[in-house]
Amino acid sequence: MSDAATIEDLKAQIAALQEQIEGPDTELLSVISAAVAGYLGERAVVKQIRFKRGHQWADQGRRAIMSGREFA
């Protein structure tokens, strides 16, 4: 396989992966902006939103439940 063919193959793979990446949904951003504006009572500008994938919420909930229990 030549270098040019390898480069073209890698470019095709990158393009396919970029299509799979989900960008922020404009409707979701509108809802977040409205919630922030409603909470603050004035028009607010949302400058940054970080989307996290993982189990942080579940882990924190488990810690809260377990720390509130007494074990014999």
Describe the structure.
With 72 residues, the chain is mostly helical. It has a domain at 25-72. It contains 3 helices and no strands. The protein has helices at residues 3-20, 26-40, 56-67. The protein is flat and about 65 Å long. It starts with a helix and ends in a 5-residue tail after the last helix. The model has no long low-confidence stretch (mean pLDDT 80).
Helical content (DSSP H or I, runs of 4+): 55-70%
Give the terminus-to-terminus CA distance. 67 Å
Low-confidence stretches: none
Number of strands: 0
- Average the pLDDT over all residues and give the rounded result: 80
List keywords for this structure.
72 residues, mainly alpha, 3 helices, flat
Topology:
Layout: H1 3-20, H2 26-40, H3 56-67
Q: Can you describe this structure in just a few lines?
A:
This protein is mainly α. It has helices at residues 3-20, 26-40, 56-67.
